[in-house]
Write the structure tokens for this entry.
Amino acid sequence: MSTLQFILRAEARFLSRLRARAAERCKIKGDIETVQRELNHENVVNVARFFFLLKALDCATPEAVEALIEGHNRKVKSLINSENFQTRTRKELEKSVFKDAQQ
């Protein structure tokens, strides 16, 4: 079996378990349709990957995440200021900076 097949199976299993847990919780609180619709969005897997990486890198505390975000923002702002747009346009770089409300 290929690596891609393993990844796809793992994602499917993760989403299936996530939906089942959400359904259990929604029996108590209601609105299962909205929750299931949100769980079908591809960003759910991306967010799960991001949190997995944070945990794997021992970067799961609020302080560590804040340092990661600040470092990311410094790097992106440096690229914007240097006008180094070889890989991304100015607009793309500006959109990738975390705003205060997102932190």
